[in-house]
Amino acid sequence: MSSVMSAIKDTISICLFNRGQAGKIFEEVRRTGAKVVMKNNQAECVIMSPEEYVQLMEENAEAKRILEANKK
After folding, report:
1. Torsion of CA 46, 24, 30, 38, to 10 degrees
2. Of 7, 25, 56, 61, whose CB has the highest number of CB atoms within 10 Å?
3. Backbone phi and psi for residue 47, each to the nearest 5 degrees, phi listed first
């Protein structure tokens, strides 16, 4: 049940952007984390803070380094 609630909480409709609510959406992303933007009932993109993005990229790079090191 928590994954369903998380999915609902972490998605937003593209209509909100079209209604001029981008500032409100960006503030919510800063406060609560990444959001999945839905368009025609399908995931269109993910919005996240720059800090969250940098952390994700650093973790990805570290995972790749560990994977490479384990291949040797």
Report:
1. -10
2. 25
3. -110, 130
Q: Where are the alpha helices (DSSP H) in 1-49?
A: 2-9, 14-18, 22-32
33-64 pLDDT, tens digit each: 999 999 999 999 999 999 999 999 999 999 99
Picking from 28, 64, 70, 67, the residue whose alpha carbon sits closest to that of residue 49 is 28
Cα angle 61-69-72, degrees, rounded to a multiple of 5: 150
The total number of residues shown for the chain amounts to 72
Sheet holding 42-47, edge to edge: 11-13, 35-39, 42-47
Which amino acid is present at 51? E
Tokens representing 67 are 């994977």
